[in-house]
Every structure is written in C-alpha cells, then in structure tokens.
Amino acid sequence: MGSLDLPASSSHASAGDESLVILQTLLCLLREKNVLSRADIEELCDRVASRTKQCESAPFPCSETAASAAASEMARIGGYIGQHYGGKHRRGQAATRN
C-alpha cells in the first residue's frame, strides 16, 4: 500500500491521533482491496454526520463537539478516498455530491 498523504487537519494534536491514523489507514486499505466501495464510504460519512444530531441518545453517547469533529474528519477522509480510489457513488447521490 502506498503512503497515506492526507492533508493535515487544522486541529491540534490529541490523544486520539494514533487511533485516527490507524482508522484512516484501515479505511484506505479496505477500499484499496475493494472490501469497501465508494458508496460504503459515503454511507459511513452520512452515518457519522448523523451522530451530531443524536449525540446523547445514541447507543454510544458522545459530545456534540466530538461528533462534529468526527463528521468533519470523516468527510475529509471520504473525499480523499473518493479522489484517490474513485468508484461509483451511491444511487441518486452522484448529482448531489458533485
């Protein structure tokens, strides 16, 4: 697998950075091996974004700030993976995403 040159996030370093690197690499690896499709990544982005609306009532409660940061990061990762690996968008979503 090639190097993962995701643009640096504007937030400062945190204790979760190691986990983030592992998850970014795992998502790229799964997409590279076609275990995940571009549509799967888009669905994951939407699900992470929806957590901001249900932070405290979700099965895994979190703060709204953390959920918003996660949604932004997932959108960034999804954009990178979509650009780098390509693939088909979800049905009905191609027109709204581009």
Structure, described:
By secondary structure, this protein is an all-alpha fold. It is 56% helix and 0% strand. Helix 2 packs antiparallel against helix 3. The longest helix is centred in the C-terminal third of the chain and has 22 residues.
Brief overview:
With 98 residues, the protein is mainly alpha-helical. It has helices at residues 17-32, 38-50, 64-85, 94-97. It contains 4 helices and no strands.
Q: How many structural domains can be distinguished in the coordinates?
A: 1
Largest sheet: none
Helical stretch count? 4
What is the helix fraction of residues, given as a range?
A: 55-70%
**Low-confidence spans:** 94-98
Taking all Cα atoms into account, the compactness measure Rg is 14 Å
Name the helix and strand elements from N-terminus to C-terminus, one letter apiece: HHHH
- The rounded distance between the terminal residues' Cα atoms is 28 Å
Structural class: mainly alpha
Form type: globular
The number of strands is 0
| Average pLDDT taken over every residue | 79
Strand content: under 5%
Question: Helix and strand layout, with pairings?
Answer:
Blueprint: H1 17-32, H2 38-50, H3 64-85, H4 94-97
Helix pairs in contact: 2-3
